[in-house]
Amino acid sequence: METLNELTTVLKPFEYVTRESSGQKYVTISKIIPMLNCLTTELNSITPNSAIVKECKDVLLRELKRRYGMIELNDHAAIATILDPRFKNLHFQDPSACGRAIQKLRTMVVGQLSSPSESEDDVSSTAPPEYDFWKHHKELAHGHKKKKKSHQGDEVSLYLSNPVVSLKSNPFAEWDDMKLVFPCLYKYAQQYLIVVATSVPSECLFSKAGATMTQTRNRLSSKYLEQLLFLGNLNAEKFFV
Q1: What distance in Å separates the CA atoms of residue 45 and residue 90, rounded to the nearest whole number?
Q2: Is the CB of residue 72 less than 8 Å from the CB of residue 94?
């Protein structure tokens, strides 16, 4: 029983990451790098007594490094993470990869630069009492606010100089508030943050399409099928707005 409890402790963060990265109604692409950092940190903090669980932990860490060790060099994931006001450059473990992404973002920014604005105080989030996967992130965010400096320069430097926002914040809502200050970055945030992190949403859509277009309804046109899938994906409250 003790071995099973230790194994559950090791696997619990993987369950959280799997569920969190498979969402389709919130931003997911920018969570990949932060979640991998938090996941690795949490695994390293676990010290199992069982030899089997210890071996399992070591294998998981090796596989994480093998499969996702170069994720910070992925331009889309890196830039999306930087453009997410909740994370920015907090979770990058490779300074050169972080600098590369920031430099690429700078080259993408064109037009007139906005003047810096006063940053708003971070709204602290209330962690779930039973389990807080983002503990490592909050520690990093707290340190980031202490090291905050004022910058006079391009949009990217001004944006990165502001503290990260609460984990409960909606990145798109935050960018709506910042679009007058960072008009160029706002445009790129709209492009990068809409990408989903996994294929789960599209697989769910295909499954719904298969359940809708059955043999008894095989004469549905593509137009009506699209409308049915759209309506079926709406929340109940949307029908009464």
Answers
A1: 19
A2: yes
Determine the angle formed by the axes of helices 171-178 and 183-192, rounding to 10 degrees.
160
Q: Are 192 and 221 in contact (CB under 8 A)?
A: no
Q: What pLDDT band is residue 238 in, cutting at 50, 70 and 90?
A: low
Distance between CA atoms of residues 199 and 219, nearest Å:
28
Q: Is-contact 28 198, C-beta < 8 A?
A: yes
Contact (CB, 8 A) for 188 and 105 = yes
H/E stretch holding 165 reads: none
The single residue listed with the structure tokens 């137009």 is: 223
Q: Under 8 Å CB-to-CB from 20, ≥6 apart: which residues?
A: 28, 31, 35
The CA–CA distances, whole Å, from 2 to 12, 13, 52, 60 equal: 15, 18, 12, 20
Sign of CA dihedral 122, 127, 133, 139: positive
- Stronger pLDDT, 57 or 213, i.e. the higher one: 57
CA 132 vs CA 16, 89, 125: distances in Å: 10, 21, 11
pLDDT of residue 241: 56
Mean pLDDT of all residues in 93-101: 94
Per-residue pLDDT of 38-74, as tens digits, reads 999 999 999 989 999 999 999 999 999 999 999 999 9
pTM reported for the whole predicted model: 0.74
Q: Please spell the DSSP secondary structure of 197-226, one letter per residue.
A: SSSHHHHHHHHHHHHHS-GGGTT--HHHHH
In the structure encoding, which two tokens stand for residue 41, read together? 């940190």
